[in-house]
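Protein modeling request. Please complete all fields; requests missing the sequence field cannot be processed.
Requester role: graduate student
Desired output: 3D structure, token encoding
Chains: 1
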Amino acid sequence: MISVDDRLKEIGEFIPQPDDDMLVCRCEEVSKGEIRKAVHAGMFTIEEIRRFLRCGMGLCQGQTCSRLVKSIVARELKVFPAELEPAVSRAPMRPMEMEVLGRDGGDR
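Delivered output (108 residues):
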């Protein structure tokens, strides 16, 4: 298995691009440059990027940005997007009031 240091040497240093300020994840306001910087900081999986930057965790749950994030990460790592493991999908959760939970089993 390749070490993080070896992988970082392989992809090279972060070089800013003119479109780094382009918004990729509108829900969490994550730019292309932030994603690229995260990869060059040693985050090589979609799950790591998602947890660090929160892209794909907003209102749309990654429906808008996930493919673009994956392609940016793949390009930086110099691999095909299919080689990247997808982020773990979870059902959206919402806070629930205790009163609602209390009503659920009270009529038995």
